[in-house]
Amino acid sequence: MKKVITFGTFDIPHVGHVKILNRARELGDYLIVGVSSDALNQSKKGRKPVYNQQERMFLMQSFKGVDEVFLEESLEEKRDYILKYQADVLVMGDDWQGKFDEFKDICEVVYLPRTPSISTTSVIEVVRSDEWENK
Ligand code: C2G
User: In terms of residue numbers, what domain contains 107?
Assistant: First the structure.
């Protein structure tokens, strides 16, 4: 069985998230998702996620095609997570292009193109703006 692993915050799940998960799943038979903890997100992006880690893990578990979910507590532990979950492929969006090449000794590393024009930040901005209220 070919296992695929991917990581992310997946806050306010959107089309870009679903697309990368679907494409990741197609690269193997079993998809494992490391969901960034609230603390990791705070240190990485300087803000609290809208949905907390339990909610984000629950949402990811509910996605068709996601077989297993765990909490990613530190960016530095990627190698340990890949080994622990015996992943054959690491998938990340191409905003991370080249950043995880160091793991090519233990798994295949694949960067998939991000879906254009959508992000958690842009959803927050649109909902906050008058533009949305007047739609
Ligand atoms: N993504 C995408 N298209 C978008 C937005 C996001 O393909 N329009 C992908 C990202 O490239 C990433 C995944 O969806 O692979 C999750 O995105 P984020 O929640 O923004 O996660 P990120 O902050 O990139 O966290 O250990 C690494 C981090 O946990 C990755």
Answer: 3-133
pTM of the model: 0.94
Cβ of 36 closer than 6 Å to ligand 1, yes or no, is: yes
What is d(CA 81, CA 58) in angstroms, rounded to the nearest whole number? 19
Which two structure tokens, joined as six digits, stand for 40? 């990791």
Confirm or reject: Cβ of 13 under 6 Å from ligand 1.
Answer: no
Domain count of the fold of the chain: 1
Given the structure tokens 């992000």, which residue do they identify? 119
Any idea what the CATH number is for the domain that residue 36 is in?
3.40.50.620
The Cβ of residue 77 has, within 10 Å, a number of other Cβ atoms equal to: 12
Tens-digit pLDDT profile for residues 43-95: 988 989 999 999 999 999 999 999 999 999 999 999 999 999 999 999 999 99
Ligand 1: atom nearest CA of 19 is: 7
* Band of pLDDT at residue 135, cut at 50, 70 and 90: low
For position 126, what pLDDT does the model report? 86
Tell whether ligand 1 has an atom less than 6 A from the beta carbon of residue 10.
Answer: yes
Q: The tokens 């533009």 sit on which residue?
A: 131
